[in-house]
């Protein structure tokens, strides 16, 4: 049987991480990404009928770090494995690792992205379209995912020991389940690798003045439409004596999902400009415009419906500054545990 190199942990996994320091960002990122890769490989194991300890390639992606896959999340439409719940079963900690262990998760719920194989491609593309139309929350896959998250959070009693992780389409699922959970006051750690940002790829424009000008114009238009919509809603509420709805961004401002993006990946690179633009608007004295605009998507308002997944009040944004040879490498998950990568991390908080 032909084995794809990317599925083989011994060839492409983070083999040097034999001891995990949970206070180390590189270790945390690498483990979270590896667990997501384990879900990709679990689905390919299923499709290629790699069953049993001698054939299945997915277990080592979690067991190497002392995680056990206790439940596979299966799509009800095509029976594909789209996610999984991992439980951390560490060896007896030594005295110098006890503090590190306090930062470890008890459970990680991981979601894969699109798998371009015959058994799953049509359903995955259907889900990709739902992401584009801001309709992922209406799918049965989301229902399965959010129920799994709620059950684990309820069993643990808090969100701090529960991690969510996903790549690409799976990153959208991790962010949506994370947002939904955070709105209840429980803030799970979230690791979103190459999360889709549905917007024109302004970040790819080289001239900074042109790029900034386009962003300012977009913010003014978006904020104007948002305020007009809000005024209409306020008028209707006043006539019906309805209370004003809570600010959805304010309720999420203390949740800091970790977003991992690559400038060479046009599907997620717009996150870089999305957060940087806020700071620039504050610097030139029109931050109030951006505080309105950042909560809304122009396409989302024109289409109507649910708030887009990609709009985030706060985040810990990590950018891979290492040059990628092509889009496939820039969008791939293997970069996130690479030893020779140059990362830059910034924290953004919505006020």
TrEMBL record:
InterPro entries: AB_hydrolase_fold, Fungal_lipase-type. The keyword Transmembrane helix does not apply. Transmembrane segments: none annotated. Keywords: Hydrolase. Residues 147-196 form the Fungal lipase-type domain. Pfam families: Lipase_3. This is GDSL esterase/lipase At4g10955-like. The gene is LOC104720424.
